[in-house]
Amino acid sequence: HPSFSWSPSLLFLVLIPPFPAPLSLVFLTIIPAIPGPLSQLFPLLIPVFPAAPPRLDTERCPPQQNWTEGQQGTLLCSARGAPEPQVSCSKDGTALAPGTAHPAHRAQAGTYLCQASNELGTAQRNVTVWVQCESGVPG
C-alpha cells in the first residue's frame, strides 16, 4: 500500500507488500523534487525493512538440555527472523513456555517440539530435556 509524504526538498514513497511477501526487502524510494522533465529524476532505493523467515539454531535453541529435579528449569529456545518470530514448545500435547523458569520434575523429561512462526513461515526443532533426579540418575 503506497503512502506519500511531502517536504520542501524530497518526496517519499513507501511501498509495503502484503505478507507473505516473495521479496526479502521492502524499499523506500526517494525522488528529489527538482523541477524539470521526469527523465532527470533518479530514484534511490534504500532497504528499510529486512524480512526473514524464522530460524532455530543450536545457539538459541539447543537440541539437548539438562535440568535438575527440584531446581528451576528453563526450556531455552528462541528464534531469529523479521518480523520477530513467536516460539512455542510442547510435548505430548502439553505446552511448555520457552524462557520461563519453573520447578523441574521428572515428568517434564522428554522430547519437545518447538516451533517458531512469523508471517514468512515456520521453523521447527526437536529439543530433548533430561531431568537429573535427586539420586543423580537421569529421568
From TrEMBL:
Superkingdom classification of source: Eukaryota
Domain Ig-like: 54-128
GO biological process entries: cell adhesion
PANTHER family recorded: INTERCELLULAR ADHESION MOLECULE, INTERCELLULAR ADHESION MOLECULE 5
Organism: Prunella fulvescens
The protein, known as: ICAM5 protein
Gene Ontology cellular component annotations, sorted alphabetically: plasma membrane
Gene3D superfamilies referenced in this protein's UniProt entry, alphabetically: Immunoglobulins
Alphabetized Pfam families for the sequence: Ig_2
Molecular functions per Gene Ontology: integrin binding
InterPro entries registered for this protein in UniProt: ICAM_VCAM, Ig-like_dom, Ig-like_dom_sf, Ig-like_fold, Ig_sub
Transmembrane spans: 12-34
Keyword entries, A-Z: Membrane, Transmembrane, Transmembrane helix
